[in-house]
Write a structure and sequence with these properties.
Blueprint (H helix, E strand, L loop, with lengths): L11 H10 L6 E6 L4 E8 L4 E9 L2 H18 L7 E6 L3 H12 L3 E5 L1 H7 L8 H13 L4 E2 L5 H33 L15 H7 L5 H6 L2 H10 L5 H14 L5 H36 L15 H11 L8 H8 L5 E2 L9 E2 L8 H17 L2 H12 L4 H19 L16 H23 L4 H4 L5 H13 L6
Parallel strand pairs: 1-4, 4-5
Antiparallel strand pairs: 1-2, 2-3, 5-6, 7-8
């Protein structure tokens, strides 16, 4: 449901509760100031009049039962008909309050979370603050209906938990890689270099480093034995690679025996940790992909250069694109829109530039990566657009990041894969255009299928009940084509 209002952050569900109740007095607001052991709560109506002043609620099952009992007594006294006219909310809840709010949601109440920065703006004094004054600021924010619904199964929240955990593990994995580089440079200088005979941190190099690794040991091994081991790890032209590796080992300067013994022990422990982290990353990638394939944002994977992991990370931070009314909101949230300041009347132009103070730094990182991928590996029409922007002296990665978000939002709303500009015309009834669109879908289908096949999820991704699966069934019927799994 679309609406035009100067209050852009109002929750439409809260608006609907006020409209359905008829009078503001028939809406009960329950602000909560969360704490680990004891919360503060109060009751007020839709006009901001206190129904019950601050009281304490324990963060236990008995506390939930007590709060529900007080709410039901107040409902009966004030003739509030529905539980959906009772709105319970507090600042962004921590892990120790999540179960408390979920229980209230399960009982049928509207549960919301408030932005802590907005609550801080509503505070009457920034110099002194107590739980009771903080509760009053929470009540004011709740009265402004500036809130987001919580409770229930939120796939985007689950996806965010997985992608942020993946981000942490990637940081740990990078640190482990750096330490492995340090020890490998002592045992076999140049083994992990870019021009080495074996690619760094591939299965073959990990296997070599895990077996009595040093330049002296590799130089002594026979070429055939080394080639067989490399061949088992999927290395092509194993004999040539083995010969180059032995030559590289003979030319390397090896450390003394004491350093070799110490570095061998240390690199073995680092390799165990690195492989464990890589295993965790693989599991998180599959879990994230399983959630993404249930969402309409999965259509963004059809853009050339955008992978499943990157798409999952972007949309986990944004949430549902279908609920975003303006791309400016996403760009500002991602920190890829310039800061604008204009004052002095319509005759004075706006000043554009500078960094925004508040934005999602994780989302900015991922959207800039997406823009860079489009600039380097994207579809032909986007590559031409990126080249034009670069010649004009513009920031290509930022511009392409904004364009990626616009395209992803359109794909999520239309439930369609990416189509080049010449296939997105309004005249869809002509036979020639339908044939061109069908040929494009057939041509790009193997690449789209391969992205999901690499994770072993192609059958789940294109099952009839998923957005991609539904799209596959429709286009096969419309264009009379076959898209085999």
């Amino acid at each position: 449901m679309k609406r035009k209002s100067i209050f852009r952050n109002e929750s439409q569900k809260l608006d609907a509760a006020f409209i359905e109740a008829g009078l503001p007095e028939r809406v009960l607001l329950v602000p909560l100031d969360f704490a680990k052991i004891t919360h503060y709560a109060c009751f007020c109506d839709g006009r901001g009049t206190y129904v019950r002043k601050a009281f304490t609620v324990k963060n236990t099952r008995e506390g939930v039962d007590y709060l529900v009992d007080q709410i039901e007594r107040t409902r009966a006294a004030r003739s509030i008909k529905s539980k959906r006219h009772v709105i319970i909310g507090g600042e962004d809840s921590a892990s120790y309050t999540r179960n408390f709010m979920d229980r209230l949601f399960e009982l049928g109440y509207l549960t919301v979370r408030l932005d802590s920065k907005e609550v801080h703006r509503q505070a009457e004094s920034v110099d002194s603050s107590t739980d009771k004054t903080a509760l009053r600021a929470i009540a004011k924010t709740l009265l402004n209906r500036d809130a987001r619904l919580t409770g229930g199964s939120d796939l985007y929240a689950q996806l965010r938990g997985l992608t942020r955990q993946r981000r942490r593990i990637v940081h740990l994995s990078t640190a482990v890689k750096n330490r492995i580089h340090t020890h490998a440079d002592c045992l076999f200088p140049g083994f992990l270099a870019k021009d080495s005979a074996v690619a760094a941190f591939r299965q073959a190099s990990l296997e070599l480093m895990g077996r009595n690794f040093s330049a002296t040991t590799l130089a002594r091994k026979s070429e055939k034995t080394l080639a067989r081991m490399l061949s088992r790890q999927g290395v092509r032209n194993a004999l040539e690679v083995a010969a180059k590796l032995k030559e590289q080992a003979r030319n390397a300067i090896c450390a003394d025996e004491a350093t070799v013994r110490l570095s061998s022990q240390l690199i073995a422990s680092e390799l165990c940790l690195f492989q464990s982290l890589q295993s965790s990353l693989d599991e998180l990638d599959i879990a994230s992909a399983r959630i993404l394939l249930q969402l309409p944002e999965a259509f963004a994977v059809s853009i050339k250069g955008i992978g499943i992991t990157l798409a999952s990370s972007v949309f986990a931070e944004i949430g549902s694109l279908s609920q975003v009314q303006h791309c400016d909101q996403i760009n500002a949230f991602a920190g890829i829109a310039p800061k604008v300041k204009q004052t002095g009347g319509p005759e004075t132009p706006a000043r554009i530039g500078g960094k925004r103070r508040q934005f999602n730094r994780i989302l900015k990182d991922y959207t800039l990566q997406a823009g860079n991928h489009l600039y380097l590996h994207g579809p032909t029409d986007l590559l031409h657009d990126a080249a034009r922007r670069k010649l004009a002296g513009k920031a290509v990665d930022t511009a392409m990041a904004r364009r990626f978000l616009r395209i992803a939002r359109a794909l999520a709303k239309t439930h369609c894969i990416y189509l080049p500009s010449h296939l997105r015309t309004e005249q869809t009834g002509t036979v020639a255009e339908a044939e061109a669109r069908a040929q494009y879908i057939i041509k790009t289908w193997p690449d789209l299928l391969l992205k999901w096949k690499r994770l072993g999820l192609h059958e789940e991704a294109f099952a009839p009940e998923t957005p991609l699966g539904n799209w596959r069934i429709i286009v096969q019927e419309i264009y009379e084509i076959e898209l085999p799994l």
